[in-house]
Specification:
The complex is a heterotrimer of chains A (515), B (316) and C (291). Chain A is of the alpha/beta class and 515 residues long. In chain A, 45% of the residues lie in helices and 13% in strands. In chain A, strands 2-1-3-13-6 form a 5-stranded mixed β-sheet. The termini of chain A are far apart. Chain B has 2 domains: 13-68, no CATH class; 75-282, MetI-like (MetI-like fold). In chain B, the strands form 2 sheets. Chain B has a two-stranded antiparallel ribbon with strand order 1-2. The two termini of chain B are 33 Å apart. Chain C has 2 domains: 6-74, no CATH class; 78-287, MetI-like (MetI-like fold). Chain C has helices at 6-35, 69-76, 82-113, 119-129, 135-147, 154-158, 165-177, 180-188, 193-204, 206-221, 225-229, 240-250, 255-287; strands spanning 52-53, 63-64. A two-stranded parallel ribbon of chain C has the order 1-2. In chain C, helix 8 (180-188) runs antiparallel to helix 9, helix 10 packs antiparallel against helix 13 and helix 12 (240-250) packs antiparallel against helix 13 (255-287). The longest helix of chain C has 33 residues, at 255-287. The chains are: A alpha/beta (515), B mainly alpha (316), C mainly alpha (291). Chains B and C meet through helix 1, helix 3, helix 4, helix 5 and helix 8 of B and helix 1, helix 3, helix 4, helix 5 and helix 10 of C.
């Protein structure tokens, strides 16, 4: 009856969840809407604190402090920053409102956060706030534990889309969920990650002569997938276990391919119901592009297999010259003395993009449309407020504080995180983190996974096994996509659509019919 | 002391003490084992929905009747998981019985210097956490940097270097079985040594007088006399295999491993029944998970009965 | 006893030693990997090559292949109360093992030596429950613990696992094999039921009880999921496996660190086993099926 290691292991799914976590931090809260108001407020605060410290103290003594809990699964090295953010928020909030707030931080293993919240909800011990995997938001919204922030009186914008304009769009979108016909914002991005291309400069240099002979520049990374193949052919030497590229088979790690090829996984039909759309020439081209790196061109080292040397480790050991990975590996790679560069994810080759109608026929290499082809995926964490919180307004204030420019800058400059607030991406001092600018460029082109419940089923049970079979050469891309679509329809979309229909029927029954 | 031969309906003092002695265990078992089993049966007739409130997961389920059972019994993945489980058992159990018995026969000989230390060394891995051991085997079976692939390569067999051990549908279950035989053989060995001790020396002497060869002694005398122990090990290992998932979870990185096509459906080669059950549980399909548990329970009871029929001591 | 002739001895060692190496390989691999510097975990080399040293040297001229850093991170991180977590784990595992032994010994005696209506049927029912997949208990047990208001308590962490049917079986088998005459003799001497149990049965069952204690301890020492869900993050009772999983959040799959964590699960168990092995094997054999 031992429940030994369950949950301690990260499958590809939880692995990516766990990976996706840069953090953010600190800051004093700043209603992002009104600088004027803020200035006035600061003045008021100053007056208050000069004039009547005693007065404030008296007020504090009168009201009992508001107690909030915040559960998070940050890295240990990031927690002190979070604590600083909390302290600053508490001090600032006290100054501004005269109200005492206590925020207790609870540590939860990152990959078990959802499971832990589920049991906490059952025990009526939900924290007021939690910082959770961006791709789990749907579950929390559907389960009724995440509060729609846009329904709070102190929601700082006129609409969800107005607020969206301030944030990294892909990261923000993981919080926007349509449920029972209503679209709400269930959290704010707290930290975000994406994949970019890491290339081993040493391995490129070791083959500089051969690369030049092939007409390739050994001092830069390939820009599109055709180039990846050309570089890869030179860099690959199976007898020495050297390969041009290493890739992960999981759905999440494959999303850059699908995003680049403009593939929709699901879409809403005219009736407003969801249907699977993961098929057609673009989707097939994306799958074939990915699978071809291994099967057709032989430049991928088999890293997609579950028992093989995974991409990160293969890169670290200089077996794979190029991989797609996120900023969380930078420190690790650097500390092991690797000479590497980071570049945008290689994009769809121009000719192919034109043939598939992804860019206008007259687009050239330098056009924005072509630049945008380098789309990547979205990982990271969101901060949510629970529906059982007694102080949702304060929780929202804290979430806004956490995503404010000052906090975001500090997380970027001190910890090398990608700011989720667009304003905080400007003029950063990133001497310590020279790779971060590439990630900032990459994140703004990134798109999240479709916001669907049963994400584990979708990834682990449906997409990964079918793609594994394609990589093994036992079925074609088209066959895999048909099977995936059929299963998505049956196992994921049907329950969602049924719920949607039921909700609509309920609403119809409530509205007085006719007049 | 009432000592009459006729059983009376009245509680004797002895019986009363019997109840007192079993009471603490029975109370805890009733609350934490029997009740959960009953409750799970109730859950197996219901299922969580997409919009079940997390605050009331259990009351907010819908009634399915036999629906969960039907949906399992008509799913190919379920049948594959049973097939994979029995394939795995067919590999694991004979191998581990043979390994345990061989070890026991060698180490039963007290004339072998160091036999005590060797027994301990072989037994030691049995007490380790399966999950952790599974993760270590993942490293050992790595096709690029694991010792086994390199060893085979040195012997001129490059197949594993290319296809890996846990990476292809053909070898994934045998590889896991291999690792688990090594982990568990010490346990079987200890039990066999005890059983060997319980065989009267005179039987072997009689066989010697009859001029039996060592092989004849093994197959005609020793193994038949070890039948109860073999039965015990077969039954307990079968139960372990039927419900076990940790080793598969660890060694396939939680996924079930490489895919195969089974009756037109794509399934993962290492998805045995225990892992399938775990995945249902993990995705919060509590109703399906409970229903699957009861199907496995029925299978376990059937297997136990059949085993007792086949291997049981016929003299009883 | 006269040792085997050298030839027979060598033949046996020649077969046993390779198997022994295989059996011990995971343990050795785990320790070696845990000692490797980051990036070396999946390198199939054990001796530093050119430009590499064994351990960190002050000049920093060469890259070290081995390090104690993976252990240092866990043991001495200021934010990681290793000793508190380890103490909690030991208390939970020890408490659970003690209670399990107490419950199984008393009930084992009851089922083995007492006559009462329904005894065999009840026992068979309990044995059948052993066939139920363990996962099934988790959700209902959690519901019960909630009802009892046991979240963040030792009780929640310990009690649900103590009705161990395998343990009951082990002790009942053993006690049944003890001759009735011992009990009769004690009764003739006027011993009370309790003292028969305490003075006659228990002393004769020590090896089996120690075995059960160790098996339970070992199982609970690495119990992760249950201890995670019955404690809130601010609980003072967080155990080591849960604590170690905090580290996992931060390193995707870093094998060197993962193996260092694994050492904390395996090495205490190995030491415990080696210290108590005599009881262990004796107990297992005493309790196993014979009839």
């Amino acid at each position: 009856m031992r429940s030994s290691g369950v949950g301690r292991w990260s499958g590809p799914l939880s692995e990516r969840k766990r990976r996706g976590c840069p953090d953010q931090r600190e800051c004093r809260r700043q209603p992002p809407c009104a600088p004027v108001w803020q200035a006035a407020l600061a003045g008021l605060v100053r007056v208050l604190s000069c004039a009547g410290f005693l007065l404030v103290a008296g007020a504090l003594a009168a009201a009992p402090p508001a107690r909030l809990t915040l559960w998070q699964g940050f890295k240990f090295s990031e927690v002190p920053m979070l604590r600083r953010n909390v302290d600053e928020f508490v001090a600032e909030y006290r100054q501004r409102t005269g109200r005492e707030v206590v925020i207790e931080i609870g540590q939860v293993p990152f990959s078990d956060m959802v499971k832990r919240l589920k049991s906490a909800a059952l025990a009526r011990q939900m924290p007021d706030m939690a910082i959770i995997d961006a791709n789990s938001m749907v579950q929390l919204a559907f389960g009724g534990v995440a509060l729609p922030l846009d329904t709070l009186p102190n929601f700082p914008a006129a609409s969800i889309d107005e607020l969206r304009a301030r944030y990294v769009p892909g990261a923000f979108d993981t919080n926007v969920i349509t449920f029972k016909g209503e679209r709400h914002l269930y959290g704010l991005p707290a930290q975000t990650t994406t994949l970019a291309l890491f290339w081993n400069k040493g391995m490129f240099r070791a083959k500089a002569k051969e690369l030049r002979e092939a007409g390739l520049d050994p001092e830069r990374a390939p820009r599109d997938w055709d180039e990846v193949v050309r570089y890869g052919k030179v860099l690959t030497e199976p007898s020495k276990n050297l390969y041009g590229f290493g890739m992960n088979n999981s759905f999440w790690f494959s999303m850059p391919f699908y995003n680049q090829y403009g593939v929709e996984i699901v879409r809403r039909n005219e009736a407003g119901l969801l249907e699977a759309a993961f098929r057609g020439p673009r989707a097939e081209a994306a799958v074939n592009r990915r699978v071809g790196l291994y099967r057709e061109h032989g430049i991928e080292g088999g890293a997609w297999r579950e028992g093989a040397l995974d991409p990160d480790q293969g890169f670290l050991n200089q077996r794979y010259a190029m991989i797609l990975v996120g900023p969380w590996q930078i420190e690790n790679f650097r500390s092991s003395g690797l000479d590497f560069g980071v570049a945008l994810v290689p994009r769809v080759p121009l000719a192919e993009a034109k043939a598939l109608g992804l860019v206008p026929p007259d687009a050239d290499e330098n056009s924005t449309a072509v630049h945008a082809l380098s789309a990547s995926n979205i990982g990271g964490q969101n901060i949510m407020v629970s529906t059982s919180s007694k102080h949702p307004d304060i929780a929202l204030e804290f979430a806004l504080h956490f995503t404010s420019e000052k906090v975001q800058r500090a997380w970027a400059e001190e910890l090398g995180q990608i700011p989720i607030l667009l304003a905080a991406q400007q003029n950063l001092k990133l001497d310590k983190f020279p790779e971060v600018p590439v990630f900032i460029e990459q994140i703004n082109l990134a798109k999240p996974l479709p916001a669907l419940p049963y994400g584990g089923v979708l990834e682990t049970e449906i997409v990964n096994p079918e793609m594994n079979l394609v990589l093994q050469g036992r079925q074609t891309a088209a066959q895999a996509l048909e099977r995936i679509c059929a299963q998505i329809e049956r196992r994921v979309l049907k329950p969602v659509n049924d719920a949607e229909m039921a909700a609509r029927a309920e609403i119809r029954a409530k509205t007085p019919s006719g007049n | 002391m009432p000592n009459q031969p006729r059983r009376t309906r009245r509680l004797t003092a002895d019986a009363l003490w019997g109840y007192i002695f079993i009471a603490p265990f029975v109370v805890v078992a009733a609350v934490f084992l029997v009740f959960p089993i009953g409750y799970s049966f109730y859950l197996s007739l219901r299922e969580t929905t997409l919009y079940s409130s997390w605050y009331n997961q259990f009351s907010d389920m819908v009634w399915m009747g036999a629906g969960n059972y039907v949906s399992l019994l008509t799913s190919k993945v379920f049948w594959y998981s049973l097939l994979a489980t029995f394939l795995y058992a067919a590999l694991l159990i004979p191998l581990s019985l043979a390994a345990s018995l061989s070890l026991a026969l060698v180490l039963n000989n007290q004339r072998l210097p160091g036999y005590q230390a060797l027994r301990s060394a072989f037994f030691l891995p049995h007490v380790f956490d399966v999950f952790v051991v599974g993760i270590i085997w993942l490293l050992l079976f790595n096709s690029t940097s694991g010792p086994f692939a390199s060893l085979f390569e040195a012997l001129g067999i490059t197949w594993f270097k290319v296809h890996g051990f846990l990476d292809n549908p053909v070898t994934v279950l045998p590889s896991i079985a291999f690792a688990m035989v090594l982990k568990g053989m010490g346990f079987g060995m200890v039990l066999f040594i005890v059983a060997l001790h319980n065989i009267p020396e005179s039987i072997f002497e009689a066989a010697d007088i009859d001029g039996a060869s060592p092989a004849q002694k093994l197959f005609r005398v020793t193994i038949p006399l070890l039948r109860p122990m073999i039965l015990f090990l077969v039954v307990t290992s079968l139960m372990g295999v039927l419900n076990g998932f940790t080793e598969f979870y660890a060694m396939t990185r939680a996924t079930g491993g490489p895919s195969v096509s089974f009756l037109g459906e794509t399934v993962q080669a290492g998805r045995v029944s225990g892992l399938h059950l775990y995945r249902l549980f993990d995705e919060s399909f509590y109703g399906h998970a409970a229903a699957m548990s009861f199907i496995l329970l029925v299978i376990a009871l059937l297997i136990t009965a059949v085993n007792f029929k086949l291997l049981g001591d016929r003299s009883q | 006893m006269r040792p085997l002739p050298p030839k027979a001895m060598l033949a046996r060692y020649a077969v046993l030693l390779p198997v022994l190496v295989l059996v011990q390989l995971p343990l050795v691999w785990m320790i070696v990997t845990a000692l490797k510097a980051p990036g070396y975990g999946l390198v199939l080399r054990f001796i530093p090559g050119p430009g590499e040293t064994w351990f960190e040297d002050a000049t920093g001229a060469a890259k070290n292949m081995y390090t104690l850093g993976n252990f240092r991170n866990v043991l001495f991180d200021a934010d990681f109360p290793f000793w508190r977590f380890a103490t909690n784990s030991a208390l939970v595992a020890g408490g659970c093992a003690l209670m399990t032994v107490a419950l199984c010994a008393t009930a084992g005696y009851g089922f083995a030596k007492k006559q009462f209506p329904g005894r065999d049927r009840l026992f068979a029912l309990l044995i059948a429950a052993m066939l139920v997949p363990g996962l099934i208990y988790m959700v209902p047990q959690y519901a019960i613990v909630l009802k009892f208001g046991w979240i963040n308590t030792w009780a929640a962490m310990i009690v649900p696992h103590t009705a161990n049917i395998f343990g009951l079986f082990l002790l009942r088998q053993h006690i049944r094999s003890l001759p009735d005459s011992l009990i009769e003799a004690a009764k003739v001497d006027g011993a009370h039921e309790i003292s028969i149990f305490g003075r006659v049965i228990l002393p004769l069952s020590v090896p089996v009880m120690v075995t059960l204690f160790l098996l339970t301890f070992v199982g609970q020492w690495s119990n992760f999921l249950w201890q995670l869900i019955v404690n809130t993050p601010d609980s003072k009772l967080i155990t080591l496996p849960v604590g170690l999983s905090y580290f996992q959040g931060q390193y995707s799959v870093q094998w060197e660190r993962m193996m260092a964590g694994a050492c904390f699960s395996i090495i205490p168990v190995a030491v415990l086993f080696l210290v108590a092995q005599r009881f262990f094997i004796a107990g297992l054999t005493a309790g196993s099926v014979k009839e």
